[in-house]
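Contributing new records

If you add data, match the layout below exactly. Sequence lines come first and carry their own label; structure lines follow with theirs. Keep one chain per record. Anything else will be rejected by the validation script.
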Amino acid sequence: MLVRVKVERVTLDTATSRFVVILKDEKQNRWLPIVVGSTEAQAIALQLENIAPPRPLTHDLIRNLLEILEVNVDRVLVNDLRDNTYFALITMTSSGLAKEIDARPSDAIAVALRMKAPIFVEDEVMRKA
């Protein structure tokens, strides 16, 4: 079963000095923290705050390319957790053909926010975490 989530916030874990993206289950009030790099944390935070950088960041460039190529991002799915590493899939459609590509959750989330695509987490991943 898939759990729809929203990006609640990006925060700094002061105990570990690492950035964390907090995904919140829209129905059951569960939380999923995912550690991300500082660059990805910045990209996600800027988009959450609707701040446009003076020049396109990598995820903005990806959005621009996808839009020009008329590729729709249907969803992002955090689909696995192995050895404390999360995995994600981006599902895209172009000319009626759906494709899934493997991505780091941080990049997938940054792209989903820019493309206004829904974000889901496998229920089993929510339980493991």
